[in-house]
Each structure stands twice: as structure tokens, then as C-alpha cells.
Amino acid sequence: SGVTTLPAFGDLYEKLRTRYDLVSFDPRGVGRSAPVLCEDDQQLDAYFQQDTTPDDTAEKTELVDSTKRFNAACEKNSGEMLPHVATTEAARDMDLMRQVLGDDKLHYFGISYGTELGGVYAHLFPKKVGRAVFDAVVDPTQNAEQGTLGQAEGFQLALDNFAADCTSQVEDCPIGDTAQDVKDRIAKLLKDLDRKPIEGIFPRQLTESAATNGILQALYSKDFWPYLTQGLEEAYDGNGMTLMLLSDSLNGRSDNGEYSNITAANISINCADDKPRYTPQYVEGKLPEFRSASPLFGEPLAWSMLSCTDWAVEGAAEHPDVSAPGSAPILVVGNTGDPATPYEGAQKMAQALGKGVGVELTYKGQGHGAYDSKNKCVQDAVNGYLLDGRVPKAGTVCS
Predict the structure, then answer these.
(1) Which of 140, 265, 268, 312 is least crowded, fewest Cβ atoms below 10 Å from its Cβ?
(2) Those residues with Cβ within 8 angstroms of residue 74's Cβ, 6 or more apart along the chain or in another chain
(3) Which among 294, 368, 372, 373 is annotated as catalytic?
(4) Which letter, b or e, does each residue of 91-130 get, where b requires 16 or more Cβ atoms within 10 Å of its Cβ?
(5) 195 and 206: one domain?
């Protein structure tokens, strides 16, 4: 939800207000724009507690059945919306907003999924692109499986970096003696939780799945690493509250137990965009590859590929088309330590946009995105383009 996010993080973009009015929106199916609704709050509590690393036939059956129930609820509660939430339609909505706002060109700052949305917009309306920046870049050349495997590798890299950072400090790392020890203890914690959950936020317990989601959330930003250290330290003593708070944050659950529609919207937009539909048998065959990419996150991410199975609407394509011949230059910013949109995606996006359009900038840092890291080099480059029209030299590196 851009309506929620921009005010919450607006101070990070204060410099841009010297030239622009900052306008964000809820894409169709999201937040206040005819939101896709699937399961209710009580059902979602159960959905996010389920075992996403099934060990036997019964657990596999329950995971598949849970996914079917969720998808059936989406069709029942939002069936009329599901065919109309694809990224191409959101891009056309953006051009309508451009016209309503009276702008000849769309000046655009897209982050994470916003880079895919911006790329699709540039493909559909290349002559309407003004000054545009893509940060935390989705790889537009990958299908759903490749993108999920890339995330497994990306989050494993972030975990490696977190463990190395903790054990390299002057003070002792409270969750392990070496980087490998940190990761081994986390793996043991998750195995123990698979057998026996611990106290979380009453009445919910911290399950293996909830703990994994909490760890994933903390790896999105280096600012969250201290909370991850705290959450793991507590969990080793039988207290799962901090990891569960992180998990709730990832899933859009508020303190009063109400969920935003972030999960329903995310799944419905992905399933409208992505053509592949994966079977449980296919996923099982891919588990060794995913485990190799990430011993910790590979398996649950592989099983997440079932989310569009039996979806009510067919997916549009294997991957988005972002070729934009004739567009103004688009600054594409990749972060070498990005877990959710791995660094390689920036180069692929710059190439796919086309020669003379995609201009790649590298940030050697941690976390999902570069501009919000407050790195001066990155911010100077982005601000220089958006405010003054100065296109950085392709291949610029910030650290």
C-alpha cells in the first residue's frame, strides 16, 4: 500500500520535495483500491502457523489443502477482482493518474515490486517516461521458479552476512562463537520448533514457520539485525515473542490481531502475472536444488511455489516485458547484499530496458534497497538525476 507506506517513510524522500509533489497510491487489489480479500483474521492466524517444511505425507497433504482453502477463499470473496489485478493493468492506471495530475511525463521512483511495475509502464508508454529510478530491482527475465530460487540464494547471503557481522564485533556475539556456529544454532532452533513450538504471543506459539518468517523479515534491513540477535537469544531461552513480532510484521498483522491484505494482494497479483503453475510433485523434485541454494530458507520457499496452484485465473506470461525503446534514461540501482531482489536483477533489468535506457548503478551494501540506506553516494546520484537531470555514468559504484 503506497497510501500507507509513503507517509510512514516520507522523511527519507524529503529532499525530493524541493522539486516534486510526492504522490503514491494503492494499486488495484491493494489496501483501499478494491482490495482482494481471502481468509479472515482467525483463518490467517492458522495459515501462518502451518508447517511449510512438510516431513511426511500427512504434512504435505495439509500444506496443499491449506493452500487450496486460501485460494478458494480468494475466489469466493474477490472473484470479480482477480482477473483485473495484473501489473499491466496497474501500469495503465498509472498513466491515467499521470493524465489526471496534468503531467506530460511520469517522473517515477519505484522500489522492489515497484521496479517491475515501472518497467512494464516504460514498455507500454516509453514516450511518457520522464526521470525514473528503479531501486531494489526485480529481475524481469526470470519466471516464478527462478525468482524464488534467487530469493533463497539472496536471503542465505544476507544470513551469512548477518552471522559474519555479529561474530566480527568487538563484543562477544551472544548467539554464536563463529559465523558457522550462528547458522548451525539457528538451524537447530528451527528443527526443535518443528517438533515442539515455544511460547510466542499468547495464545499463539512460535512455530518453525513463524520463526523462519521472523528471520526473513529481519534480514530485509541491516537496521533490523539487532532485533534478530535479540529474538534469537530470547528464543534459545524459550521466549519466542520478538521473532513472532517480526513474523507478524512480515505478514501484515497488527497488534490487535487484524491483518492488512498484503498477503492476499501479493499472491493475487503474482498469480495474475505469472503463467507457471507448479504441482506438489514438481516442487518435491526441486527440493534438493533449493536446499543447496539455502539450507535454511530453500525448502519453505520451494513449497511457496504452490501458491498459484488451482488459482481461479490464468497467469499472463512467463515473465514481464520491460523493453522500452525510445524511453528517457532510467537509473537502475542494485544492492550487492539485497536478500529479496538479488543484485543480479539490476543488470538484467538495465539490459532488458534496452541500450541507452537502463543505466546501472551498484551499491555495495546490505538490505533491501539502496536509497533508504542513507548512503551519500547513492542519494547524491539519485537526487542528481531526479532533481537536476544529471544521469550518472553507467557502471557507477557506491560503497
Answers:
(1) 312
(2) 36, 37, 38, 82, 264, 267, 268, 312
(3) 368
(4) bbbbeeebeeeeeeebbbbbbbbbbbbbbbbbbbbbebbe
(5) yes
Catalytic residue among 78, 338, 372, 373: 338
**Domain ends where: 318, 335, 362?**
318
Answer yes or no: do 227 and 333 share one domain.
no
pLDDT at 285 over 90: yes
Q: Are residues 42 and 132 in the same domain?
A: no
Residue 249 designated active-site: no
* One domain, residues 257 and 354: no
**What residue ranges in 169-309 does DSSP mark as E strands?**
198-199, 205-206
Q: How many CB atoms lie within 10 A of CB 196?
A: 9
Return the closest-CA partner of residue 237 out of 187, 152, 174: 174
- Is residue 55 assigned to a domain? yes
CA distances from 9 to 16, 22, 52, 236 (A): 13, 12, 32, 33
Cβ neighbours of 146 (radius 10 Å):
14
The CATH number that applies at residue 348 is 3.40.50.1820
Residue 343's pLDDT is 98
Q: Is 165 a catalytic residue?
A: no
Q: Containing domain of residue 288, as a range?
A: 36-80+143-318
**CB-based burial label for 189 (10 Å; 0-12, 13-18, 19+):** buried
Based on C-alpha coordinates, what's the Rg of the chain? 21
Both 135 and 162 in a single domain? no
Q: Which of 299, 318, 337 corresponds to the end of one domain?
A: 318
Residue whose grid cell is 490481531: 257
Number of domains in the chain: 2
Residues present in the chain in total:
399
From the list 155, 134, 111, 115, the residue with the least C-alpha distance to 339 is 155
> Cβ(8)–Cβ(24) under 8 Å?
no
Clarify whether 319 is annotated catalytic.
no
Shared domain for 231 and 330, answered yes or no, is no
pLDDT per residue as tens digits for the range 13-51: 999 999 999 999 999 999 999 999 999 999 999 999 999
* Mean pLDDT over each residue of the chain, to the nearest integer: 97
Indicate whether 148 and 129 sit together in one domain. no
Catalytic residue selected from 112, 247, 307, 373: 112
262 and 230 belong to one structural domain? yes
Give the pLDDT mean for 69-80: 98
The yes-or-no verdict on residue 257 having pLDDT over 90 is: yes
